[in-house]
């Protein structure tokens, strides 16, 4: 049995996945990351999912062992941000051709590419990604990476997640397995401390993590590793010495958090930094876990003091937006942690959530939404484009929050839309992020352009005017005829 097959079965048998908790060992293997049928990996393939998880490690060279198109399709597919290195923004690919494949030169070309990257860029490590083509022709990237690491004295990490293996979510988990097998635990930090934590499943989209880290710094809490947002290779390699962890997106990396707890006794919880109350709760839970692992109990008091101070400041800044947004109806078409955490943050400022998609949400996510909304009719497993358009055109919502793929549905319905997914240009995490979210929703809803686009077009206005004139002329003629009849 191939190593890839073993990994996939292990991911399907993930006991921490909410979909597996009450299943028998036999049915558990069908698990929460059920692969799609070949050709049906809508929303991204396994390779794409692995690249999403690992590319934000910023001082690493990400080498795609494939024809050029694979890298062209996956490069820069998220709005993650870096506070330092820019190497992750450089595309590296072996650019295999038909001749390389037929003549069996692909593994040799991979080894040469690793050497050129090492000599030309001196990265902290090189991640090598298998793809459909190289997996089908049987390239042994593990062996090549092992030989290259010995030859060039640099970590070379194989990421065995070819696209045909399954969905994007499966690729997320296979990337976590690669970190566990080849990266985490390979470097011992020289300064471990009682206040070290890991943040798992945080991608630092539009710099969101930078709105949260100052709060942790004020508490004296050090982020040993944020995986993967704005991460460095050595931070990830030494992440096994953290005392606690917060899981931001369990859909993507629950296997990583669970295995780190088993191997290195790092307790974790799932939380969110979206919304005022969710951010406060996350800070409290982090402090509680650290105290449970031996930190000074005074940390709890410091956390509570900062929570009170930040909440008061945030609510004061939100006063200007609350009257303008209170009672406004919002349709949320997203998934994962945002399906419940953004719902909660919107309701905090008085908005009414008329519906939220839960297609990519876990069972725990759905339970949270039910408790928040108290109406299961607002939960949609999948909202078809026609249904989205119908809800918006019939003005059942005042704005839609979603990803870029559905923005044109809102625009066609002539309704406000705001990007809430990875392509967004604004950070919405933490207390400051909540204020920014309210500001952007306010700008979108009250933008005067919507009143203009709902007006008839000039040519339509001309037709309406002409029809009105014809009706008036006909009415005047009828009136004249009736008058003439009376005179007779």
UniProtKB/TrEMBL annotation:
Pathway: Cofactor biosynthesis; Fe-Mo cofactor biosynthesis. Belongs to the NifD/NifK/NifE/NifN family. Gene3D superfamilies: Nitrogenase MoFe cofactor biosynthesis protein NifE, C-terminal (3.40.50.12380), Nitrogenase molybdenum iron protein domain (3.40.50.1980). One of its GO terms (biological process) is protein-containing complex assembly. Residues 23-32 have a biased composition (Basic residues). Residues 15-34 are annotated as: Disordered. This is Nitrogenase iron-molybdenum cofactor biosynthesis protein NifE. This protein may play a role in the biosynthesis of the prosthetic group of nitrogenase (FeMo cofactor). It comes from the Bacteria. InterPro entries: Nase/OxRdtase_comp1 (IPR000510), Nase_comp1_CS (IPR000318), NifE (IPR005973), NifE-like (IPR049939). The gene is nifE. Residues 45-443 form the Nitrogenase/oxidoreductase component domain. GO terms for molecular function: nitrogenase activity. It holds the Pfam family Oxidored_nitro. Keywords: Nitrogen fixation, Plasmid. NCBIfam families: nifE.
């Amino acid at each position: 049995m191939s190593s890839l097959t073993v990994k996939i079965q292990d991911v399907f048998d993930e006991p921490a996945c909410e979909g597996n908790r009450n299943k028998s060992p036999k049915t558990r293997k069908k698990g929460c990351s059920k692969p799609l049928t070949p050709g049906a990996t809508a929303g991204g393939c396994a390779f794409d999912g692995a690249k999403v998880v690992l590319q934000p490690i910023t001082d690493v060279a990400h080498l795609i062992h494939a024809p050029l198109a694979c890298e062209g399709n996956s490069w820069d597919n998220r709005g993650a941000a870096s506070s330092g290195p820019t190497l992750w923004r450089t595309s590296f690919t072996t650019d295999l051709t038909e001749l390389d494949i037929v003549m069996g030169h692909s593994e040799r070309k991979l080894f040469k590419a690793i050497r050129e990257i090492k000599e030309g860029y001196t990265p902290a490590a090189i991640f090598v990604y298998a793809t459909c083509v190289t997996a089908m022709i049987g390239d042994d990237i593990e062996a090549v990476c092992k030989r290259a690491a010995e030859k060039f004295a640099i970590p070379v990490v194989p990421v065995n997640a070819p696209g045909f293996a399954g969905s994007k979510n499966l690729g997320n988990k296979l990337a976590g397995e690669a970190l566990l097998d080849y990266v985490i635990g390979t470097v011992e930090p020289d300064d471990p401390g009682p206040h070290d934590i890991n943040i798992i499943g945080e991608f630092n989209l539009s710099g969101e993590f930078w709105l949260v880290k100052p709060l942790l710094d004020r508490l004296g809490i050090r982020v040993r590793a944020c995986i993967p947002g704005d991460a460095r290779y050595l931070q990830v390699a030494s992440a096994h010495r953290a005392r606690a962890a917060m899981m931001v997106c369990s859909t993507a990396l629950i296997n990583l958090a669970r295995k780190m707890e088993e191997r290195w006794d790092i307790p974790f919880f799932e939380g969110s930094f979206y919304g005022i109350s969710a951010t406060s709760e996350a800070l409290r839970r982090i402090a509680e876990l650290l105290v449970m692992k031996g930190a000074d109990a005074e940390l709890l008091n410091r956390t509570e003091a900062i929570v009170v101070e930040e909440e008061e400041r945030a609510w004061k800044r939100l006063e200007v937006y609350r009257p303008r947004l209170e009672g406004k109806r919002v349709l949320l078409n997203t998934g994962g942690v945002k399906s419940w955490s953004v719902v909660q943050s919107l309701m905090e400022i008085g908005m009414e959530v008329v519906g939220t998609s839960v297609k990519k949400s876990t069972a725990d996510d759905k339970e949270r939404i039910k408790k928040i909304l108290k109406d299961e009719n607002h939960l949609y497993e999948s909202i078809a484009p026609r249904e989205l358009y119908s809800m918006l055109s019939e003005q059942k919502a005042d704005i839609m929050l979603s990803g870029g793929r559905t923005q044109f549905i809102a625009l066609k319905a002539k309704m406000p839309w705001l990007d809430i997914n990875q392509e967004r240009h604004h950070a919405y995490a933490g207390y400051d992020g909540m204020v920014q979210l309210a500001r952007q929703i306010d700008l979108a809803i009250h933008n005067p352009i919507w009143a203009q686009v709902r007006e008839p077009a000039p040519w339509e206005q001309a037709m309406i005017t002409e029809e009105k004139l014809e009706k008036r002329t006909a009415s005047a003629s009828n009136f004249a005829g009736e008058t003439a009849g009376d005179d007779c």
